[in-house]
Design goal:
By secondary structure, the chain is mainly alpha-helical. It has a domain at 51-111. The chain is built from 4 helices and no strands. It has helices at residues 7-14, 16-46, 52-78, 85-111. Helix 3 packs antiparallel against helix 4 (85-111).
Length: 119
């Protein structure tokens, strides 16, 4: 019988697939921390009078989360792999993809240096 609590031990046996999933998880966690830090700073600086740019960013973050997590949920609901550790890792990796894509894109966008205006 498969024990989901032993999935971590199976990582060593599953090779490349497990490392790819672990890397995707680490990148997502790192990017999420960057995005949360940047957005909280933006909200704190805006205070009770956010600019139109601040409001656009706040609306964007809600819409992006809904989109990414609904795609992840649909991916998991589609299933199709069984309960073997390899099938579960493939399903987790597929489900994590939209979240990873949004988090890493936001981290790149929010940490980009502003373009200098021509004088």
């Amino acid at each position: 019988m498969f024990n989901p609590f032993l999935l971590g031990a199976d990582f060593m046996r599953l090779g490349t697939q497990s490392w790819q999933l672990a890397l995707k998880m680490a990148e997502t966690a790192s990017a999420s921390g960057i995005v949360v830090n940047k957005r909280l700073g933006m909200m704190a600086a805006a205070g009770s009078t956010p600019s139109s740019g601040d409001l656009k960013e706040m609306n964007r973050m809600v819409a992006e989360k809904a989109d990414a997590f609904s795609k992840a949920a649909l991916s998991l609901a589609a299933g199709g792999g069984g309960i073997s550790p390899a099938a579960m890792m493939a399903a987790y990796s597929t489900a994590l993809t939209p979240i990873h894509r949004a988090a890493t894109a936001n981290a790149r966008r929010l940490t980009r240096k502003p373009k200098r205006k021509a004088r």
